[in-house]
Design brief:
heterodimer, A: mainly beta, 38% strand, globular, B: two-stranded antiparallel sheet, disordered N terminus, disordered C terminus, G-protein_beta_1-5 (chain A)
C-alpha cells in the first residue's frame, strides 16, 4: 500500500471514529437525566458544614529540600513515604513526625513513590524511566545509603505513577510518558503485561496516573494527557475495558471511589469529575469559578472513606474539600492558617480514613486528623484507665493541649455502653483535617 | 572532506592537479532519493491500525447498541447517595450521616 493510500485510509478512519464517537455522545447525553448534586438536592440532603475553628493542622513534616512530588501511606502502620526533587525518598512516622529512612536516589528526578502493602518496601520512578524498589530492611552500604533492591526497566518514557497491587508485595503497576501502563512482577523484574502502546488500542498520549480498584485488584484506571481515563482488566492487556471522555485537559489524577463502582478524575481543565464504571456516565463535575482568567489545574485527589468528601489539590496552592453529594466546596484548606505556600502536588488519606496528608512544592508535607464528635472520646474503663473509643485519637496523640470538656447526652452515652463509661472527655472540635 | 583527483598529463612524467571536487556542506540526512521513508510509512500504518481497531471496538463491543440498554444516570446517583450515607466517615460528624 502506498503512502498516499495509507493517508487516505487514515483520514477515512478518523472521520469514522469521530462520527461514531459523536453518535455515542448523543446517546449518552439522553441518559444523563440528572447529576449527583441534582439528585441529592431532590432528596433534601444537607451540606456538610465545617467551621473555621474546627480545623487544625496537626503535623508539618519538614525535611525535604526540594519540591515534594508524591506521597503514599502504608496500609497498616502509620507511616508515609514522600518523594522530592531533592533526590530523596523520606519515610516518616506520621505519629511522631520522625524520619525513619532518608533514601538517596540514583536519579534525583523522581515523580512518584509508593509503599508496598506490607510496608517493607517502597517503590519510586521518574525521569530515568525506571521504577526502583527499595527494601527498607536491607542493610545500608558503606556510604550509609539504602541500595536499590530491584530495578524495573522497560518503559520508554518517564514513570509518572506507581502503585502496588493490594495485598501483593510482588506486583506493581506503573504509568508512563510512553503512553503505556505496565504490570510488573517484582520478583523477576519482568513485565507481566503492557497496557496500550503502539500496537494496541490504548492511550494516545502520556499516561500520568493509575489507581487500582481496592475491591477488585484486577481492575485499574489510568488517566492521560489524551484527555481520557481508561479502565483496564489486568487479564486483558490488548484493549481497555472502557474509555471515559469528558475532560478538556490532561487527566492528571484518577482515584477509585470507595465503593469500587465509580471513580474520580482531576484534570488540567480545572475540574474534578465523577464517572460510573459500569455505565460510563459522567455523574458529576466539580468546578469552582475562579476570579482570574487562569484556571488552576487539579493535581491530586482523594476521597474520604465514605466518599462524601473529595479532597482536591490545585496548582495554585488551593486544596478544596468538596461535598461530593451537593458538589459544593465546603472548605479551602489552602486558605487556612499554617497552610502550604506552594502548589499542592499530592495528597492521600491514611488507610483508616482518619488522616489526610498533603504534599507541596513548598517542600513540606502536612497531616490533618479527622476528629469527629463521636471519635474524640475517651472513656474510663473498669481499671480506671482511659479507653480510646476512637483509635485514631490515641494513635495521633490529639489529647495534647487542645480541647474542651463537656457532658454528652444520654443517647450518646448509650452508643458506648460497652466501655462502661465513667468519664467522658471530648474535644470541642468536630473535625480536624490538617 | 575534500576529494582530490589527480591526472597525469603526457608521458613526461610531470603531473598537475586538474580537478578538485568538493562535497556539498553537511546537512541532515534525507531519505534516499526515489525510495520510501519506511519509518514514516510504518508509523502511518500503525496509526491506521489503531484507528481501525477503535472502530471495530465501537461496533464489536456493541458499545453503541449497549448504550441504549444502559440505565439512566439517576440510578447511579441513587447508588452513590445510598453508599455515602450508609458508610461511617471519620471526617463527617455523626449527625451528618442521615442528612
Amino acid at each position: 500500500m502506498s503512502v498516499s493510500e495509507l493517508k487516505d485510509r487514515h483520514a477515512t478512519a478518523i472521520e469514522t471514529v469521530n462520527s461514531l464517537k459523536d453518535r455515542l455522545r448523543q446517546k449518552r447525553l439522553q441518559l444523563l437525566d440528572i447529576d449527583v448534586a441534582g439528585y441529592s438536592r431532590s432528596q433534601g440532603r444537607n451540606p456538610v458544614s465545617f467551621g473555621p475553628t474546627d480545623l487544625v493542622c496537626c503535623r508539618t513534616l519538614q525535611g525535604h529540600a526540594g519540591k515534594v512530588y508524591s506521597l503514599d501511606w502504608t496500609t497498616e502502620r502509620n507511616r508515609i513515604v514522600s518523594a522530592s526533587q531533592d533526590g530523596r525518598l523520606i519515610v516518616w512516622n506520621a505519629l511522631t513526625s520522625q524520619k525513619t529512612h532518608a533514601i538517596k536516589l540514583p536519579c534525583a528526578w523522581v515523580m512518584t513513590c509508593a509503599f508496598s502493602p506490607t510496608g517493607q518496601s517502597v517503590a519510586c520512578g521518574g525521569l530515568d524511566s525506571v521504577c526502583s524498589i527499595f527494601n527498607l530492611n536491607s542493610p545500608t552500604d558503606k556510604d550509609g545509603n539504602l541500595p536499590v533492591s530491584r530495578m524495573l526497566s522497560g518503559h520508554k518514557g518517564y514513570v509518572s505513577c506507581c502503585q502496588y497491587v493490594p495485598d501483593e508485595d510482588t506486583h506493581l503497576i506503573t504509568s508512563s510518558g510512553d503512553q503505556t501502563c505496565v504490570l510488573w512482577d517484582i520478583t523477576t523484574g519482568l513485565r507481566t503485561s503492557v497496557f496500550g502502546g503502539e500496537f494496541q488500542s490504548g492511550h494516545t498520549s502520556d499516561v500520568l496516573s493509575v489507581s487500582i480498584n481496592g475491591t477488585n485488584s484486577r481492575m485499574f484506571l489510568s488517566g492521560s494527557c489524551d484527555c481520557t481515563a481508561r479502565l483496564w482488566d489486568t487479564r486483558v492487556a490488548s484493549r481497555a475495558v472502557g474509555t471515559f471522555h469528558g475532560h478538556e485537559g490532561d487527566v492528571n489524577t484518577v482515584k477509585f471511589f470507595p465503593d469500587g463502582y465509580r471513580f474520580g478524575t482531576g484534570s488540567g481543565d480545572g475540574t474534578c469529575r465523577l464517572f460510573d464504571i459500569r455505565t460510563g456516565h459522567q455523574l458529576q463535575v466539580y468546578y469552582q469559578q475562579h476570579g482570574d482568567n487562569e484556571v488552576p489545574h487539579v493535581t491530586s485527589l482523594a476521597f474520604s472513606i465514605s466518599g462524601r468528601l473529595l479532597f482536591a489539590g490545585y496548582s495554585n496552592g488551593d486544596c478544596y474539600v468538596w461535598d461530593t453529594l451537593l458538589a459544593q466546596v465546603v472548605l479551602d484548606l489552602g486558605s487556612l492558617q499554617n497552610s502550604h505556600e506552594g502548589r499542592i502536588s499530592c495528597l492521600g488519606l491514611s488507610a483508616d480514613g482518619s488522616a489526610l496528608c498533603t504534599g507541596s512544592w513548598d517542600t513540606n508535607l502536612k497531616i490533618g486528623i479527622a476528629g469527629v464528635f463521636t471519635g474524640i472520646l475517651f472513656a474510663g474503663g473498669k481499671a480506671g484507665n482511659l479507653v480510646p473509643i476512637c483509635e485514631n485519637v490515641m494513635r495521633f496523640g490529639l489529647l495534647e493541649g487542645i480541647g474542651e470538656y463537656f457532658e454528652l447526652s444520654w443517647s450518646k452515652r448509650l452508643l458506648y455502653s460497652q466501655y462502661e463509661l465513667q468519664v467522658l472527655i471530648a474535644f470541642h472540635c468536630f473535625v480536624l483535617p490538617w | 572532506m575534500i576529494m582530490k583527483e589527480e591526472e597525469k598529463e603526457g608521458s613526461c612524467g610531470s603531473a598537475s592537479v586538474v580537478l578538485v571536487v568538493e562535497e556539498p556542506p553537511k546537512s541532515p540526512r534525507s531519505p534516499p532519493g526515489g525510495r520510501l521513508d519506511l519509518y514514516g510509512k510504518r508509523r502511518q500504518m500503525v496509526k491506521v491500525q489503531v484507528l481501525e481497531r477503535e472502530i471495530e471496538d465501537l461496533f464489536k463491543q456493541e458499545e453503541l447498541k449497549s448504550v441504549e440498554d444502559l440505565p439512566p444516570a439517576s440510578r447511579c446517583c441513587k447508588e452513590v447517595d445510598d453508599f455515602v450515607r450508609a458508610k461511617p466517615d471519620p471526617f463527617i460528624a455523626v449527625y451528618d450521616y442521615r442528612t
